[in-house]
Amino acid sequence: MVKAIRLRQPASLDNLYADSTDAPPPRRGEIRVRIHAASLNFRDCLVVAGYFPSRDGLIPLSDGAGEVIDVGEDVPNLQPGDMVVSCFHPGWFDGHLERTQLRHSPGGMADGFACEAVTRPYWHFTPAPKGWTAAESATLTCAGVTAWRALVTDGQVKSGAAVLILGTGGVSLAALQIAKAAGAKVIATSSSAEKIARLKALGADHTINYSEVENWGEAVQDLTDGLGVDHVVEVAGPNTLPQSMIAARTGGHIAIIGGAGGFENDAMPFKIVQAKRLRLQGVTVGSRRDQLDMVRAFDADGRMRPVIDCTFPLDELAEALHYQQEESGRIGKVCIAI
User: Fold this and answer.
1) Facing residues of 119 across strands?
2) 158 close to 184: Cβ distance less than 8 angstroms
3) pLDDT digit string (tens) for 47-57?
4) How far apart are CA 96 and CA 94, in angstroms?
5) What is the CA 225 to chain-centroid distance, rounded?
6) Pick from 150, 123, 126: which is nearest to 283 by CA?
7) Is the pLDDT confidence value at 136 over 70?
8) Per-residue pLDDT tens for 83-119?
9) Were 285 and a residue from 88, 98, 152, 165 both cysteine, which residue would form a disulfide, CB within 3.0 to 4.6 Å?
10) What is the per-residue burial (b if ≥16 Cβ within 10 Å, else e) of 210-234?
11) Is 265 a residue whose pLDDT tops 70?
12) What pLDDT, on the 0 to 100 scale, is given for residue 275?
């Protein structure tokens, strides 16, 4: 038995508790992994707060990384000592996604990675990028793959394209680095001078302080000589979508990813969508193939590293989730050391 943090129903931060879980020797097609780090996402906060359904005794957290310590029969390309990172949708191997492939995502209805070790089918993991720490690798499962899916798999981003990112969360910062590596120009928005300075240091070509510029969609148009951007990584939700549509060029691609800015505004400016022939694409993280391709690209590039805001120990998971949800000054990912 190994240490784990579980969630008691009704779900809330106060109902997280220390317990244990089993990580038995692997059977055919399985690996046993010593989890060294996890990272937090908006989705984890929603699960623990009870906004997403979960079961009594759930081990939360969708993103985990660690070291293979035992390998069952018929496991290709993995051996003890290899560093691996979990897949968000382990049943989605490649291609088109069916709803049935979403049922067993870790940290939702299935156990996640707030624990010291797990035994899972090998396809629940991919190799981690070479030379990365476990904490850095753990940021990829959700945020990294989402940004990759939005810009590369769905968006087919090309050199010279213009990309708009919103804020300084994990998806946005991953998208910034992926876009720059592809040779794109990046416009980034934020609400503070400190964050804007960090965005510039990470390579943003232009920045907009949306607390000072209410109509930032028009400001994006001005920065692109009236054309607009080819891609928008839209993480904030319906309250920012109208401005994102204004910012996009005719025929532009808007990746609809999250609702960090709230869900209460249901207005959809259909006239803009039709007039500009926009392509709105929902993103549900990505497939195992997306993750494999992303890791291969990161290994080949050698320059990209995720931005980590801070790290909490596993025993302080509740405090970490509270920080993830409430700290407006956060830049990058919140990680858990295990």
Assistant:
1) 32
2) yes
3) 999 999 899 99
4) 7
5) 31
6) 150
7) yes
8) 999 999 999 999 988 888 777 899 998 999 999 999 9
9) 88
10) beeeeebbebbbebbeeebbbbbbb
11) no
12) 73
Residues in the chain: 338
Beta bridge partners of 247: none
SS3 222: helix
Q: What is the chain's mean pLDDT, rounded?
A: 94
200-204, long-range: CB < 8 A, 24+ apart:
202/173, 202/176, 202/177, 202/307, 203/176, 203/177, 204/165, 204/176
Phi, psi of 74 (to 5 degrees): 60, 40
Domain definitions of the chain by residue range? 2-139+306-337, 144-282
Q: Which class for 284: exposed (0-12), middle (13-18), buried (19 or more C-beta within 10 A)?
A: middle
Q: How many CA atoms lie within 13 A of 320 on its CB side?
A: 24
The architecture that CATH gives domain 2-139+306-337 is Alpha-Beta Complex (3.90)
144-282: CATH architecture? 3-Layer(aba) Sandwich (3.40)
Q: Which two tokens mark 159? A: 């050199």
- Adjacent-strand bridge partners of 6: 17
Q: How far is CA 132 from the centre of its chain?
A: 17
Count the alpha carbons within 13 Å of 7 in the hemisphere toward its beta carbon.
Answer: 31
Q: How far apart are CA 86 and CA 92, in angstroms?
A: 13
Phi, psi dihedral angles at 55 (to 5 degrees): -115, 160
Provide DSSP, 261-313.
Answer: T-S------HHHHHHHT-EEEE-----HHHHHHHHHHHHHH------EEEEEE
